[in-house]
User: Fold this.
Amino acid sequence: MLKRAFTGLAAVGLLATLSSPALAEGITKDQGDVIINELRQIRLLLSRQAQPAQAKPEAPERVKVKLGKEHSLGNSNAPIVMLEYTDYQCPFCNRFFTGTFPELKKQYIDTGKMRFITRDFPLDFHPYSMKAAEAAQCAGEQGKFWPMKDALMTNSAKLNAELISTLADGIGVDMGKFKGCMDSNKFIPVIKDEVEAARGINIGGTPSFVIGKVSGDYLEGYLVVGAQPFENFDAVARKVLSE
Assistant:
C-alpha cells in the first residue's frame, strides 16, 4: 500500500513539474506529450489495482494499419496477428517483454495461433532508443534481429552506444558489416515511417499493440495500449478468434 501511494504521489509530482514553464522551455511539445502519456499509463495501472476484481476493462478501439516486411515470429498463416510498437529504453516495454510476452509466446505464438510482428517507436526523450532500434535492424540484415532485440530489451535500463556495440558482438554478428550499417543511418527513414504510421492510428506511447486479422495488405483489429497482463491480451485474442 505504501509503495502504491508513493508511486501515485511521484506521478502526480512529475506531472506538476512537467507543467512548469521552466521545464516546458527545455523540451518540445511532442516530447512532453509522450512523457505525459507514460505517466497516464502509470495512473491507469494504479487505478486498475484499485478496481474490484469483477470490473470489466474498457472495450478496445478498432484500427487498421498497413503491413510491410517487418520482422515476425510464428506461423505466417496464423489466424491472429499481433503488431507491437516498442521502445528499447521504455520501462513499460521491458515490463511487457519480461512479464507478459513469455506467456503470450507459449500460449499463442509457439502453438501456431498467432504471428507476432514488431515495429519501432523510439521516444525522443530516450537518448539511445533510436540507436538501439537501428542496431536491431542492422543485426537483422545478418539474420540476428531477434537475438539482438532480446539482448537490447534485457539490458534496456543501462543502454548506451558502447553497450549496444558490445551486445551486437556478443550475439555473433560480423562487426565490420554491423558498423557499416550503423554508420550509414539507412534505417532511420524506415523507423520514422513506422512512427508516422503509428501516429496515424492515434498511438502516442509505448508499448502499444494491434491485435487482429490480416486483410490484404492491412491488419484490422483492436488497439491495446500499455504493459497489460497476459489475461487482457488473451481476452482480445479470443475476441478476434471468435469473429
Summary: Confidence is low (pLDDT under 50) at residues 1-24, 47-55. The two ends are 40 Å apart (CA to CA).
